[in-house]
Design a protein that fits this description.
One of its GO terms (molecular function) is glycosyltransferase activity. The chain has 278 residues and is an alpha/beta fold. The chain is built from twelve helices and nine strands. The protein is 42% helix and 21% strand. Strand 1, helix 1 and strand 2 form a beta-alpha-beta unit. The N and C termini lie far apart (66 Å).
Length: 278
């Protein structure tokens, strides 16, 4: 029986991190896996050295012109031979028991099709990556599933992979597609995934996204694409407008209290000027 996990690593300018990421993979207690690195248009020298390293077995490296992470992940899955898929960015890490514990969950309950764990940031900060507990309504408003989650390859193929037309939120869109076809979600309450926030300013991981217009456009495309599912879960357009109106009413009442204004004015002046600038 094929219980292999295909680990797909999109690679872009990750020469300072990829060896550490691979080491976290090859230290796994669950060893039935293959690794597929998809080089998304980066210089090859670091990957050539990795390819020659005999410690990294069952490793395949695919080179493509720069097309973005979604394309890299999709192309990696095309070469995958495993029953399961795990996406791992080229600078992130997984605990040695990540594969073992997530595989146990999926293999014991066929209804669960997505399994992830608690996560922590590292390098620039070591705080917990706080992800809200999964429920469909809240998930459709804000994603709570990290890209590094174990899934079935057949499910990936069923929904057509990642939408390469999206610049942002493509992982969220992908998770929505899986949940939409009935995939159940499970979160392991252990810190087994580590998400790097780089110290360098040129990092793709922690580049500040200040283009709110493009973010909004991408979210709107996702909303339109999955509108029937949103509607089924009480998030049709009229309901969203009602939520916004109620939120504005609450804020207006909340911030209008005289004592709250006073506290903000003297103890939180920046927030005071932001809220009461008019």
């Amino acid at each position: 029986m094929n219980e292999k996990i295909s680990i797909i690593i999109p690679y872009y300018k990750g020469e300072n991190y990829i060896h550490e990421t691979l080491q976290s993979v090859y230290d796994q207690t669950y060893q039935d896996f293959e690794v597929i690195i998809v080089n998304d248009g980066s210089e090859r020298s670091a990957l050539d050295l990795i390819e020659k390293n005999s410690d990294f077995k069952n490793l395949k490296i695919i080179h493509q012109e720069n097309q973005g992470q979604s394309s890299a992940r999709n192309n990696g899955v095309k070469s995958a031979t495993g029953k399961y898929i795990l996406f791992l960015d080229c600078d992130d890490l997984i605990d040695k028991k990540f594969l073992d514990k997530t595989h146990q969950i999926l293999s014991k309950n066929n209804e669960i099709r997505i399994c992830y764990t608690k996560g922590k940031f590292f390098e620039k900060t070591d705080k917990e990556w706080v992800l809200q507990p999964f429920n469909t309504f809240d998930f459709l408003i804000e994603n709570c599933i990290p890209i590094t989650a174990l899934i079935y390859k057949e499910d990936f193929e069923k929904v057509g992979g990642f939408d390469t037309q999206l610049n942002y939120y493509e992982d969220w869109d992908f998770w929505i597609s899986l949940v939409e076809i009935g995939a159940k979600v499970h979160k392991i309450d252990e810190f087994l995934f580590f998400y790097r926030i780089r110290n360098t300013t040129d990092s793709l991981t922690n580049t500040s996204i200040d283009n709110s217009s493009r973010l909004s456009d991408n979210f709107f495309e996702i909303y339109k694409k999955h509108y029937t599912f949103y509607k089924q879960n009480g998030l049709d357009f009229h309901s969203i407008m009602s939520l916004i109106r109620e939120n504005k009413k609450y804020k207006a009442k909340y911030y209008d209290e005289w004592y709250r204004k006073l506290i903000y004015k003297f103890f939180k002046p920046k927030k005071y000027h932001k809220i009461y600038k008019n």
